[in-house]
């Protein structure tokens, strides 16, 4: 018998977790669920935290070192990275605007939000203390904090992820600058380690159905207690949260990218959309930019007429560092969780989310589940309770499919923009007609 696809397993785990939680509330098994089921959800969270630092370090080093021919393509490289960072920042800011306007986390009743806040009161107090300490520091202290004094110390805590990213960028650039014959063994080493890390992510994601079941069961019994009807409130709020994320992703695909394609790419968006559609569908079904990459390159070259020199450079780099959909989702999810726990995020905290989500997206692996790992980083950097990730894991599979579609569309958009500015775009006649 053919094995059930992982996303179906996760969806079943979600449904069974919610069902178990509600039955536990009815049958008086709340304590049993908290003691014997929820811990497996905690283990799943710990596995995600375990892999976060090595995933970012190795993925980013291999991504930067892929620019080994940067001397010949320095102009294209700087242009590509600059546009990628720009679109990512736009995505994060758009997500923050939407989540602050619609405030899905505040859709929880005040009583539930107060319960969440009390449950993690120590985290809130610690965050307030940290904020007070920051106020006494100089204006350039955040810049100082990015540069580690001891990288091995930074590698021991997920909260120092910006320092890890800084070191990985510095290491990758230095790797490009040394002689190729000396750099090759190092490149081979990190590429091998990268494959190992991605395999570990696959192993962790294989446990996702059970982890999601335990997380959802624990969340429902904690939320509902002996009142199963309260679980309905949770499901309604999650639906509201999903709508906010989907609106943001839709704005990227139907507003932001069309604007860039038509103004810079000088191409009608209907033609672009028709040409890249096969890659979008594969991205939707696999939730992996890496798995979709061969199809994305084929669509870009054959359907959109982008020169292979551009696609072979821009698209693989984009699959590594350009995660617009993931970054938008992280911004919405982070603030949603903070709102759910009654944590007020000031403008500096949200600017920190912009920076962290943007830089973390550079190191995000182009595989299913990596977005959740990156969200762990964003939450920890912003001082938001990581346990709140349980709130958004339930609908994550569907959102993962949608945000990967946005990621791939963004890669193709930037590829077209770079090709047009380099005179390397020659769309076939049949794709230019609307």
TrEMBL record:
Presence of the UniProt keyword DNA damage in the record: no
UniProt keyword terms in alphabetical order: Cell membrane, Glycoprotein, Membrane, Symport, Transmembrane, Transmembrane helix, Transport
Topology of this chain in the membrane: Multi-pass membrane protein
Major place of residence: membrane
Compartmental location: Cell membrane
PROSITE patterns: NA_DICARBOXYL_SYMP_2
Coiled coil segments of this chain: none
GO annotation terms (biological process): dicarboxylic acid transport; L-alpha-amino acid transmembrane transport
GO cellular component, as recorded: plasma membrane
GO molecular function: symporter activity
Transmembrane segments: 7-28, 40-61, 81-102, 160-180, 192-218, 238-260
Domain of life of the source: Bacteria
UniProt protein name: Dicarboxylate/amino acid:cation symporter
High-level lineage: Bacteria, Pseudomonadati, Bacteroidota, Cytophagia, Cytophagales
């Amino acid at each position: 018998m053919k094995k059930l696809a992982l996303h179906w397993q996760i969806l079943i785990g979600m449904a069974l977790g919610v069902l178990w939680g509600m039955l536990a509330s009815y049958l008086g098994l709340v304590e049993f669920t908290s003691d014997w089921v929820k811990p497996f959800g905690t283990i799943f969270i710990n596995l995600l935290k375990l892999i976060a630092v090595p995933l970012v370090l190795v993925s980013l080093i291999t991504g930067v070192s892929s620019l080994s021919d940067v001397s010949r393509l320095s102009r294209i490289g700087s242009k590509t990275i600059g546009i990628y960072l720009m679109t990512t920042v736009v995505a994060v800011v758009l997500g923050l605007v939407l989540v602050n306007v619609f405030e899905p986390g505040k859709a929880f009743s005040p009583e539930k939000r107060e319960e969440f806040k009390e449950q993690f009161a120590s985290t809130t107090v610690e965050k307030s203390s940290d904020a007070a300490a920051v106020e006494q520091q100089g204006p350039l202290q955040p810049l100082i904090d990015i540069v580690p004094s001891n990288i091995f110390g930074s590698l021991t805590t997920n909260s120092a992820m910006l320092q890890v990213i800084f070191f990985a960028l510095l290491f990758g650039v230095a790797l490009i600058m040394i002689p190729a014959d000396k750099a090759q063994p190092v490149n081979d080493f990190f590429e091998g380690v990268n494959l190992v890390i991605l395999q570990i992510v696959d192993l962790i994601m294989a446990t996702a159905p059970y982890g999601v079941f335990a997380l959802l069961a624990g969340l429902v019994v904690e939320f509902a207690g002996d009142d199963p009807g309260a679980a309905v409130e949770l499901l309604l709020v999650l639906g509201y949260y999903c709508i906010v994320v989907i609106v943001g992703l839709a704005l990227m695909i139907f507003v932001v990218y069309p604007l860039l394609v038509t103004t810079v790419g000088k191409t009608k968006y209907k033609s672009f959309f028709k040409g890249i559609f096969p890659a979008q569908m594969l991205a939707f079904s696999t939730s992996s930019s890496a798995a979709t990459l061969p199809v994305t390159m084929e669509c870009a070259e054959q359907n959109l007429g982008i020169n292979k020199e551009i696609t072979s450079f821009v698209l693989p780099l984009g699959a590594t560092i350009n995660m617009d959909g993931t970054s938008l989702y992280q911004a919405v999810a982070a603030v949603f969780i903070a709102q759910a726990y009654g944590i007020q995020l000031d403008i500096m905290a949200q600017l920190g989310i912009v920076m962290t989500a943007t830089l973390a997206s550079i190191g995000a692996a182009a595989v299913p589940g990596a977005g959740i790992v990156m969200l762990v980083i964003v939450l920890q950097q912003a001082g938001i309770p990581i346990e709140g990730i349980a709130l958004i894991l339930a609908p994550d599979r569907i959102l993962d499919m949608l945000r990967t579609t946005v990621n791939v569309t963004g890669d193709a958009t930037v590829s077209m923009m770079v090709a047009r500015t380099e005179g390397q775009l020659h769309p076939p006649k049949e794709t230019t007609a609307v």
